[in-house]
Amino acid sequence: MKFRNFKTVPKMIFGRGSFDQLDDVLADERTELDDFVVFLVDEVHKDKPLGQRIPATGKDMVIWLDVTDEPKTTYVDALTVEVQEYAAKQVNGKNPVSVVGIGGGSALDLGKAVALMLTNEGGSASYQGWDLIKNPAVHHVGIPTISGTGAEASRTTVLTGPDKKLGMNSDYTVYDQIIMDPDLIQGVPKDQWFYTGMDCYIHNIEALNGTYINEFARAFGEKSLDLCNEVFLQDHPDSDEKLMMASYMGGQSIAYSQVGACHALSYGLSYVMGYHHGIGNCIAFDVLDDFYPEGVKVFREMMAKHNITLPKGITKDLSEEDMEKMIRTASGLAPLWENVYGPSWQEKVTPELLRNLYSKM
Ligand code: NAD
Ligand code: ZN
């Protein structure tokens, strides 16, 4: 048996107001006069107070990200070219000394992806997979402004490419530094707060109930789940702090275990129907009583408490071709199903099972 050699984020700052320390963090990277930093910031912050607090100076570059769609390889490549063209004009083509991703899972993944593509040639689609990245990335800093995905902690950047939705998974993908400032997640719209928060809750349920579970992953997963319960069932006064830590710890938990049935189904919903990760997970989780009875029961209590209603009947007008594509996408995620059923998962995960689950959504 070979165990995973787990790369984690080496430096992190946690606390309200800690965003102000970004300037100090970057000062350590700036050594020459024409050194510059690229800030990739979710456009939602452009005319908000956070947009005014970006510590850009000198030749730094601020790019406002369009996250209407979840990150695509084409977008990553376009952003990379934009940085390279700017660098060619301004600083003789040298790379930035740091790339800072600020926003939700989408912006955090774009930050990682651009940092990787600045040092690895050939376009991001050619690196979708495991350990295909050859060169270390540019120094990169992640700052979440909505919590749940665990993207701040993970070794992947999830991208939709020409023929698949798959991350660039590598040790180089992991952020060099994260700043977790609970102030930044205030003001997230309620529905989105819930969907992205449930991503974290579902990571824990799937990890804790999976065959890959071990004490390392359980330690993080159980604590993260307790925090989710405090946030979503008890409206704890420190909910922002708790959700931010839950997200990070949920990410740590699945990094040493795996997600499960809900994420497999949700990938299909996303790839074929364009559902975003958080809401797609909620829609899928709501039909998984047989897989995660207790988890789904509590999830419904959380939905009721926060007046969340999910779209229903979403697959009823779907073409047979799309349904089959969705089933293929979901059944292709071998490690996720192995985590659910163990090594003999292929006997269990039949097209009929998946069709039946999709039909209930
Ligand atoms: P998101 O980043 O798409 O953001 C959701 C919405 O919230 C957007 O409209 C965004 O503009 C808005 N938003 C963000 N911060 C805000 C704030 N402070 N105030 C108001 N609005 C704000 O959503 P997400 O759920 O965080 O991330 C989903 C993405 O993360 C997907 O692309 C998914 O594939 C990816 N993901 C990555 C990993 C990983 O490990 N890399 C894990 C899970 C999901
Ligand atoms: Zn997830």
Describe the protein in words.
It contains 14 helices and nine strands. The mean pLDDT is about 95. The protein has two domains: about 180 residues, Rossmann fold, CATH 3.40.50.1970; about 170 residues, Dehydroquinate synthase-like - alpha domain (Dehydroquinate synthase-like, alpha domain), CATH 1.20.1090.10. Helix content is about 45%, strand content about 10%. The protein is of the alpha/beta class. The protein has a six-stranded parallel β-sheet with strand order 1-9-6-4-2-3, covered by helices on one side. Strands 5-8-7 form a three-stranded mixed β-sheet. Helix 6 packs antiparallel against helix 7. Bound molecules: nicotinamide-adenine-dinucleotide and zinc ion (ZN). Nicotinamide-adenine-dinucleotide binds next to helix 4, helix 5 and helix 9. The site of nicotinamide-adenine-dinucleotide has 31 residues, from helix 4, helix 5 and helix 9. Keywords: Oxidoreductase.
